[in-house]
Amino acid sequence: MITPDLRKELTKQGYKLIGSHSGVKLCRWTKSMLRGRGGCYKNAFYGIESHRCMEATPSLACANKCVFCWRHHTNPVGTEWKWNLDEPELIVEGALKSHYAMINEFKGVPGVQEGRLKEASTARHCALSLVGEPIMYPKINAFVKLLHERGVSTFLVTNAQFPDAIRALDPVTQLYVSVDASSKASLKKIDRPLFRDFWERFIDSLKALGEKGQRTVYRLTLVKSWNSDDVEGYARLVSFGFPDFIEIKGVTFCGNTSSTANLTMKNVPWHEEVVSFGTALMEKINQMEAQKQLGLKGSAGFDATPLYGIACEHEHSNCILLAHRRFHIDGAWNTWIDYAKFSQLIGEYYQSNGEKTFSSLDYVQPTPAWAVYGASERGFNPNDTRFRRNK
Predict the structure, then answer these.
(1) What does the alpha-carbon distance between residue 119 and residue 34 come to, in Å, rounded to a whole number?
(2) Number of folded domains that form the chain
(3) Which helix (H) or strand (E) is 365 found in, with range?
(4) Which DSSP string corresponds to 122-190?
(5) Mean of pLDDT over the chain
(6) CA pair distance 264, 209, nearest whole angstrom
(7) CATH number, domain at 174?
(8) What are the tens digits of pLDDT across the range 244-292?
(9) Is the pTM of this model over 0.85?
(10) Is the separation of the CB atoms in 23 and 41 below 8 Å?
């Protein structure tokens, strides 16, 4: 998969390549939290420790060529696995080794907190969202099992083109599906998928997500003037999978590297626009669900409780989180993850050969006040100090 030219280009971009088809890279939020300048949105929404998070992928290949791809389309593309296959042990060991080597480079760097640097020497989270489509890797279940056995949580992102692989996937800490458009025409325009039946695969992937028992997420990336107008269309897509959470994030502009994309800073929504879109989406989903209940049960069986609410925000990342009402427990949001409990549950799952399963509500924790939507901190952890380049 990794040709000499591709290896040269990815290495230039800061990737550490592993074997013949995997990679790892140090996230800017890892560097930020090492300096006490705050973590990423997953720190606010789910309680991960950004300085202990490894960003990796077991497959650099992808089945889409999204217009907003922030990896500049340097990764290979394909609709099936047609390359040499590395063993999961090699990938996990290589990823951790390369990750720790990059962490060690921060020893003695001004501003880096010694305590956090020491904590970072033991990874506790893995964001399988670096580049490509990790679920394409044929041994993905063995790969995530090795991470879980090391006490590393898994946040796996898929681009909704491999529904069978989603169904065959063993539990991960949190499973994401990218929902980049609300219609077939706009999905083709934005994601530029390789499959001819991309829309059918997309819908089936949403349905497959809805069949999972553990934490699930729709991830919406808003690109102004491209995919941020059809609120009702997105609300209809929610009915296919009814995810635990819906992340809504403004696109990150990384330069116009595609002759067919023509993205500029004008396509990046303001945080207020992201909040406005999320509010409208929440209201439309709740309205459609109420109408559905009235049609099925009549007024006697009608439940007025909204299905989704805005739970969290991370202004720094231009991102908000809608959460299903089942995570609103005893009057408070519980979007954070009990990672020790997940480790216990996934261990029991493996020991029982999958017979002893568990649900997303079995490993929740209360969301701290500073991360809840409407708080004055707007998702920034008050234990850290925000750094602003432009005063």
Answers:
(1) 9
(2) 1
(3) strand 364-365
(4) S--EEEE-SSS-GGGSTTHHHHHHHHHHTT-EEEEEE-S--HHHHHHPPP-SEEEEE---SSHHHHHHH
(5) 92
(6) 33
(7) 3.20.20.70
(8) 999 999 987 665 555 545 767 777 889 999 999 999 999 999 999 998 8
(9) yes
(10) no
